[in-house]
């Protein structure tokens, strides 16, 4: 009579079977310290690099703002957009995405004026002129017509001495509706620089 062969006890030593896995040897202290150092370094880089980048960007933005303020402070202009109330009151609808925007407002008991400058596109200029009520867009401009007076130019330091070409128009309205004197420098054919003096008398 043959006795069936019994399987080996799992507690007895023997070669590993196909489903068995070898145990990983314990990690030595030097390897553990090295792994922790690498992990800490990666965390510092992930947190520190973006923080440094944001700090540099903030400083550059602040320096740019200071440069603009310094540039316009000598002329009385304030870098930035006039408020929505000012734009509506003086009927100066600055086109979206305009650049180099600056303004200055004067008030007395007789007359109020808003001086504005901005750099825009040809499409932006056309929309601006139509929105002010000229009805003709850029076709309403006249070549070499410097409609802003020397007195108003002196107030904000506009000289208009560049070669140009220069274009301008006056959109005259009955008080108290604002009257706009507009001058455009088209030395850059794709990006005209626009100067506006809007005057209102109560």
TrEMBL record:
Gene source species: Streptomyces alboflavus
Keywords associated with the record: Membrane, Transmembrane, Transmembrane helix
Membrane spanning stretches: 37-56
Region Disordered, residue ranges: 1-28
Name of the protein: Sugar kinase
Native organism taxonomy: Bacteria, Bacillati, Actinomycetota, Actinomycetes, Kitasatosporales
């Amino acid at each position: 009579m043959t006795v069936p062969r019994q399987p080996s006890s799992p507690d007895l030593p023997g070669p590993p079977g196909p489903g068995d896995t070898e145990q990983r040897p314990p990690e030595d202290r030097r390897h553990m310290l090295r792994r922790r150092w690498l992990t800490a370094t990666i965390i510092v880089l992930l947190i520190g690099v973006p923080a440094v980048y944001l700090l540099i960007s903030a400083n550059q933005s602040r320096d740019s703002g200071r440069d603009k303020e310094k540039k316009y402070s000598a002329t009385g202009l304030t870098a930035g957009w006039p408020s929505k109330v000012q734009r509506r009151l003086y009927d100066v609808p600055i086109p979206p995405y305009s650049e180099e925007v600056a303004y200055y407002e004067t008030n007395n008991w007789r007359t109020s004026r808003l001086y504005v400058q901005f750099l825009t596109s040809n499409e932006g200029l056309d929309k601006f002129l139509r929105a002010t009520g000229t009805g003709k867009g850029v076709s309403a401009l006249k070549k070499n017509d410097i409609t802003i007076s020397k007195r108003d130019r002196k107030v904000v330091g506009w000289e208009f001495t560049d070669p140009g070409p220069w274009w301008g128009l006056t959109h005259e309205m009955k008080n108290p509706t604002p009257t706009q004197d507009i001058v455009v420098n088209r030395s850059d054919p794709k990006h005209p620089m626009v100067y506006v003096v809007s005057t209102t008398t109560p």
